[in-house]
Amino acid sequence: MAKAGPAAERVVRAGAELADEIGFEGVTPSALARQLGVRTASLYSHVRNAHDLKTKIALLALEELADRASAALAGRAGKDALSAFADAYRDYAFQHPGRFAAAQFRLDADAAAASAGVRHSRMMRAILRGYDLTEQQQTHAVRLLGSVFSGYVGLEAAGGFSHSAPASQESWTEILGALDALLRNWPSAT
Fold it and tell me: Are residues 36 and 46 in contact, defined by beta-carbon separation less than 8 angstroms?
């Protein structure tokens, strides 16, 4: 049975650091054990298996990302809030690429409901309330924004924008402006 506590937290944090170094997909109990200089069997007192390790890293990443996004949103509204939220995601992805990938790990329903993913959704919906969207339009907008943020960051991290002008930052700023305009003029349901 996996134990909770400071030692387990250190194991998960070490797993998150390893994910940033080698990529989230490469994180396994044996890879983490090598990194920590311990036997793999000793990790199983803190995590049940590879899936449990990845779930715990994902939960950590979601929490860190929610904390950053929350701090970035403080006192902001409208386009400023949208840009601050998006920039928090983009900055986190560059600083912690493995953890950012972990934040997209599919969690089971119970883990997802108890995760900081709920905070992400609430923050995004709070931003969207400033755009006078219906509940259903907000759901569509949350999915659109998440897709744009994750897609852009993924392409940018893979070097997809490094061989042409204008600079990626200029495109990012233009895209956020276009998203703001779309949200202000969201098409009515037909």
Answer: no
